[in-house]
Amino acid sequence: MLEQLTDLARGPLLKLALIVMAAGLLRVVILQIWELGWAYGRAGDQVVSWPVIVRRTLAWLLPWRYWGPEARRLYNLTSFIFHVGIIAVPLFLAGHVALWDQELGIRWFVLPPVVADVLTVVTVVALIGMLVGRGVNTGSRMLSKRQDWLMPILCMLPFLTGFLVAHPRFSPVDAQVVYLVHLLSAELLLILVPFTKLVHIVLFWSNGASSEFGWRFAPGAGEQVRATLGKEGQGV
Amino acid sequence: MGDSDVGTAPASEAERIQSRLTYNIEKDRVVTEDLPRRFLEVFSAILKHSNYRQVLDNYARVTARCANCAASCQIYQATEAPEDVPCYRSHLLLDVYRRHFTTKGILSGHLLGHEPLTVDKILEMAESFYRCTACRRCNLECPLGLDHGLVTHLGRYVLSELGLVPRALVVSTRAQLEGETRNTSAIPLPAILDSLEFLAEEIKEDKGIDVEFPIDKEDRQFIFYAPVSDYLMEADTLMGIALMLKVSGQQDNWTIGSQYNDGINYGLFYSDWILERCLVQIKEEAERLRSKEILIGECGHASRSAKAFMATYGGGPDAPRMVNILELTYRLWKEGRFKLAPDVIPDRVTYHDPCNVARSGWIVEQPREIIRSFCKDFVEMEPHGENNLCCGGGGGTVSVDEIRPYRTGVTGKSKAEQLVATGAKYVIAPCANCKKQLREVIEDHKIEMEVVGLHDLLYKAMVID
């Protein structure tokens, strides 16, 4: 039974999760491009300085660019490390690359096992750090919604179980169960990507352009708004 | 006047709304009946005709609620109130957008019965969006690149169509666009002309040369738009500009229009409709006099609104070009058109970056290079440049006199600390908005310092052959 479930999770479920994620992300990307195009078409000023947008977007990736005395240094650094981990480990862990090869027929660079282990532990610690950071900061604590607390925990699950899969001697429960939890939690995470804030995997890259286009107003819009509201010809 | 807009509700409702706000509104114009429904109607009309949808969709999807922005917000740093986290402010509007204008929100609203939009929520926005000075410093700190200044701008735009906007801004704008005087300070043209004549005489007396403020000259390179309040409050700046243009051989290259000469554009702060109308006026006056370039005086928001939106509302690539006076002065100085006596100002001087010209990195180094050349003791505030702190009166709040205690005590608090730390005698602030605010900060915090424009000091330092 457990074995069959594991096979299901390794094969069809994984593919399904990847398809849902890819299709969901594709939908969001297409919508975003379409909306940007729409805004661009109506903008009175269509001269766009792409190098500036690209530079600004890349700068947001760095944790240290605007570290002033008041910045949350530790939180920013923690978040940066977490992002390195959550990108590198799922993609480049030897076991995963073997799985990609077997199930999807693609191969690429493999992380040395020690590096993968260290990165896994560091990522879990970073996730705990991010949760603590969110909790102790009045602003973020108040802003946070349910998904902001649950997402880091869900992100942690594949890392914790993954570590136990690689080192079964630390595992308090049956390795097969741990492996199943690892697969299912990772798949749940993949499926949720397009529907939660994790969608910034793709939308982060268009955020600079989006803000820039947000300031590209449509000429005549103000007057049209007034007309729609029945205020045509009225003064200030 | 729309009949559903004005005067249909009992005065007490308008009073109640007013009592919830720290700034004065026009009580006879605020929408009192069915406010939530009207709010959604306005929001919907703006989404339909303007370009905000894509950016709201994007922000609503990605926002991570990390509150990193709070670290960069001088208001939050002063109050430590969760409501002053920039992201919280943006969420007031984003939540309405999500709930009422996205499929997911509408569906889940029906299924889960989310709380409807309330008058309280709207008034919270009305207050919150005017606590923000729209300095956009948080944009640098947000790891996802949300521009909370843009959301504040949109939020204020929606609210303005409901009459929820500081009276001070509307009254000035009305005088500018629909009044006799055609400027925000309601100064009659003869008074402006008189004061210019007087300034020319002053210059003659001080410097011994004839300087003219050219009115309605056609076919000049530059048509000059000062923030009109300069004619009342910043005579030294205007004299500095006129003298600089004269000395550098530009006397016959510039003019001031008699029909429209106010660079101020409160539309940038609260309404796209106003933003467009002001810029169209500027463009038409330039066309009337066949001027080639729009020259904006020492004023941050006037410069940014012309720089960022003249192409939008002035015909795209065919729109007249614009230049800020600091850019022009820098160019002429670099070309050697005028000389400054080195070390003519022995006292310590610091420089305040107006957010609207510095945040984007547009005008940061140019004025500093000039200042260093003639001021012996120039010190920086920390932080400065692109990462500067707002004077505390940005986003139009400086014009709202009734919130002065908030402006100098809360938003201007860290600016006051910065000023004190420099130990400077002069703070140069090339922006009418910042000048007024900094003077009030200095007064309320009892700091020994004088606020000047860059051209005020150039006036003293310029070498006259």
Q: What do you see in this structure?
A:
The complex is a heterodimer of chains A (236) and B (465). Chain A is mostly helical and 236 residues long. Chain A has one domain (2-41, 48-65, 72-214): Fumarate Reductase Cytochrome B subunit (Up-down Bundle), CATH 1.20.950. Helix content of chain A is 75%, strand content 0%. Chain A has helices spanning 2-42, 50-61, 73-92, 94-104, 113-136, 138-143, 146-166, 175-192, 200-214, 221-228. The longest helix of chain A has 41 residues, at 2-42. The radius of gyration of chain A is 23 Å and the shape is elongated. The mean pLDDT of chain A is 93. Helices cover 52% and strands 7% of the residues of chain B. By secondary structure, chain B is α/β, with parallel strands linked by helices. A four-stranded parallel beta sheet of chain B has the order 2-1-3-4. A four-stranded parallel beta sheet of chain B has the order 6-5-7-8, with helices on both faces. Chain B has helices spanning 11-19, 35-49, 53-62, 68-72, 74-79, 86-101, 103-112, 119-128, 138-141, 148-160, 167-178, 189-207, 230-233, 235-247, 267-270, 272-288, 300-313, 325-334, 355-358, 365-374, 404-411, 413-422, 432-444, 454-461, and strands at residues 222-225, 254-255, 293-296, 321-324, 345-351, 375-379, 426-428, 450-452. The interface between A and B is large, with 66 and 72 residues.
Number of helices of chain B: 24
CA radius of gyration of chain A: 23 Å
Report Rg of chain B: 23 Å
Largest sheet of chain B: 4 strands, parallel
Name of the top-level CATH class of the largest domain in chain B? Mainly Alpha
Write down the CATH class of chain A: Mainly Alpha
Query: What fraction of residues of chain A sit in β-strands?
Result: under 5%
In short:
The complex is a heterodimer of chains A (236) and B (465). The radius of gyration of chain A is 23 Å and the shape is elongated.
